[in-house]
Amino acid sequence: MNPKSKQKFFITAAIPYVNAKPHIGHALEFIQTDTIARYHRLLGQDVLSLSGGDENALKNVQAAEAAHQPIQPFVDQNTESFRQLALKLNAEFSVWQKGSNSRHHQSSQKLWQLCHEQGDIYKKSYTGLYCLGCEAFYSPDELNQDGQCPEHPGKKLEAVKEENYFFRLSKYQAQLIDIIQSDKLHIVPETRKNEVLSFLKSGLHDLSISRSNHRTKNWGVPVPGDNTQRIYVWFDALNIYQSGIGFGWDQDHYHKWWPADLHVIGKGIIRFHAVYWPAFLLSAGLQLPHKIFVHEYFTVDGQKMSKTVGNVYDPFTLIDHLGADPLRYYCLAKINPFTDGDFSEGKVLATYTSDLANGLGNLVSRVAALVDQSGKEVLEDEHTIIRQELRHHLDNFRFDLALADIWQRLRATDQFIEQKRPWELEGDELQAILQTLVAHIRQAAFELQIFLPQTAAQINAHFKGPNITKIDPLFPRLDQ
Ligand SMILES: [Zn+2]
């Protein structure tokens, strides 16, 4: 490999169902994914990030019917609102792939054909319990003690009988155990890896991967060579990760980026990503993704988010009110990605005041004012790097620890000002203190590019030097 060519890093966020508008949980995942992408860009890697809309699900069809709308404009509209959310959060996705895109159809049919050529797809009659929330069949032993879906307790399972195509999942059991045990497909955290391993060891049933035209209302990707069936949503939705980068329509581009270096997903869809997806890829003779980062969920005001409780939180108004960075900061600094975190407007506002207005914002204003009053010039630094401690936290997806580390240094800088009392100094002594203070601010701004892109850009622009003037508050005080 040419040492000068950049290392590539292909990262994906989960592809959301677009049967409804996005909620705060989607914001969390977009922010986490974007932060990892920005980190790898700052390391000098060539980064491609992807998300999009899972538009072919049965529940989209039903939601469109309930809204008395044709399916295509319904999913277009909802997918667009997810894209808008990402844009408002400054979560940059290089590729935004829609499931109804014709190239995606072509790509999913190619994946089907490759699995079919291996003899891994066969047709049989089937009766089963279907959870529309998961878009998946459940066998009786997988249900909770009330006989309901473990992800959607309270939701009625549908008894479905039809002739479907099946994928020989059972054939890949031993291979899947091996690749996950050995971290060839690395699942983070370890607890989730163990959960997948115990599921694999309990035995795999073959998987239904098509639905009749009757049930899908002719929506979705047609099964190659059979005009009575559509490809099952997960077989097709997971393939958005490949179709978005050219699989089946631009093989050069595809080979430049595949396999994915990292899939970012929520805990509810781990089985689809860590069992079904690698099995399809193994069957098709394609490379496996390197790593899956599984994050936990947001509760809202201490309760699981649900339509029934009525606490599904729409993040748009808050972003319009505060800007993207305060929400990014809350999601990254106050949430351990490996435990459920709680969201409430009150907590976001309190954090805004304590950590952003009184913390970062106040320190930046203070240092700018000191330099301004001194009449001195502060030259540009040689170079800035991401500190080792920060890299360690980011490599382990502990955004909260990374930001705690940066904030610890901000507080230390504040204390340094108190100790040195630069307002009582002059000459070289003052010059040296100001140089140190500005270097601290520049270092913080450099690292904050990963987390708070707008704020970091503002600080960087203002502290370029050699002349640094007073700065308007980065985080104005909130009216009650
Ligand atoms: Zn379910």
3D structure, described in words:
By secondary structure, the protein is of the alpha/beta class. The chain has 18 helices and 16 strands. The protein has a 6-stranded parallel sheet, with helices on both faces. Strands 5-4-6-8 form a 4-stranded antiparallel sheet, with helices on one face. It has a 3-stranded antiparallel sheet with strand order 9-11-10. Helix 11 (270-284) links the parallel strand 12 (262-266) and strand 13 (291-295). Helix 12 (316-322) crosses helix 13 (324-333) and helix 15 runs antiparallel to helix 16.
Secondary structure topology:
Layout: E1 8-13, H1 24-42, E2 46-53, H2 58-66, H3 71-88, E3 95-98, H4 102-117, E4 121-131, E5 136-138, E6 158-167, H5 173-181, E7 186-188, H6 190-201, E8 207-208, E9 210-212, H7 213-216, E10 222-223, E11 226-231, H8 233-238, H9 240-243, H10 251-257, E12 262-266, H11 270-284, E13 291-295, E14 298-300, E15 303-304, H12 316-322, H13 324-333, E16 341-343, H14 345-374, H15 388-395, H16 399-420, H17 427-448, H18 453-462
Parallel strand pairs: 1-2, 1-12, 2-3, 7-13, 12-13, 14-16
Antiparallel strand pairs: 4-5, 4-6, 6-8, 9-11, 10-11, 14-15
The structure holds zinc ion.
